[in-house]
From TrEMBL:
Keywords of the record: DNA-binding, Transcription, Transcription regulation
Keyword RNA-binding among UniProt keywords: no
Gene Ontology annotations for the cellular component aspect, listed alphabetically: cytosol
InterPro entries: cNMP-bd_dom (IPR000595), cNMP-bd_dom_sf (IPR018490), Env_Response_Regulators (IPR050397), HTH_CRP (IPR012318), RmlC-like_jellyroll (IPR014710), WH-like_DNA-bd_sf (IPR036388), WH_DNA-bd_sf (IPR036390)
Lineage: Bacteria, Thermotogati, Deinococcota, Deinococci, Deinococcales
Protein name: Crp/FNR family transcriptional regulator
Transcription regulation recorded as keyword: yes
Recorded GO MF terms: DNA binding; DNA-binding transcription factor activity
């Protein structure tokens, strides 16, 4: 298990550029945890005493809107990505959001947060890699927030579909898509139907295939006029 943990850590962007000798002590402390779809890794307000790194599958990090009636997806972490990594590097950290598995199975590598902080803060190469990774993550989150605020749903959905083009792939539920795109399930369903009628996508059950990538790209860029 230590070898598999070390290999995962060495390929994680958060530790990009670090030496194997710097990661080996962390790998020795690692364990793996399997999650089913819909199972929570943690919830907002929980104490974060573990650093989580996705091994396979994906984890959605979200916050509940006021009143708890809607969810806003902050980001989705896939293989080799940290889950709520910045928070875990704080002493006595509290989870600022909830994290739930999107697929069955989803596997995450677990490391004691205190040991990770001690190792990173005491190793210049690791500290440099982590700081650079957190800077990239901040830029990504700002870009996502900008997209949610300033772009229309059609643009966001077109961009999402293009990320997986041209191979057919299984769509999340409309509720999950709505949370990812910052809207409500009814509008997602309506927009998917519109794209289908325009022959931009082929949709059968929950399997979608992009049939007009050029038009979707035009829509994703905010060009809605012919």
């Amino acid at each position: 298990m230590t070898d598999r943990a070390e290999q995962l850590l060495s390929h994680a962007p958060v530790f990009q550029g670090a030496q194997a000798a710097d990661l080996r002590p962390l790998a020795a402390l690692a364990s793996f945890r399997l999650l089913k779809r819909g199972e929570h890794l943690f919830r907002a307000g929980d104490a974060l005493d573990t650093v989580y790194l996705v091994s396979s599958g994906s984890v959605r990090v979200y916050r509940l809107a006021r009143g708890g009636t809607r969810e806003l997806t902050v980001h989705v972490e896939g293989p080799r990505q940290l889950v709520a990594g910045i928070a875990a590097f704080q002493s006595r950290a509290i989870a600022p959001a909830s994290a739930v598995a999107l697929h069955t199975p989803t596997e995450v590598l677990c490391l004691p947060a205190g040991a990770v902080r001690e190792r990173v803060f005491g190793t210049p190469a690791l500290a440099q890699a982590v700081i650079a990774s957190f800077a990239r993550r901040q830029a990504e989150l700002l870009a996502r927030m900008e997209g949610l605020v300033f772009s229309e749903l059609g643009e966001r959905l077109a961009a999402y579909l293009l990320e997986n083009a041209p191979q057919p792939h299984a769509l999340p539920t409309n509720s999950e898509l709505a949370a990812l795109l910052g809207t409500v399930p009814e509008l997602v369903s309506r927009k998917l139907g519109e794209f289908y009628r325009l022959n931009l996508i082929h949709l059968e059950r929950r399997t979608v295939r992009v049939t007009d990538a050029a038009e979707l790209a035009r829509l994703a860029q905010g060009n809605r006029e012919g």
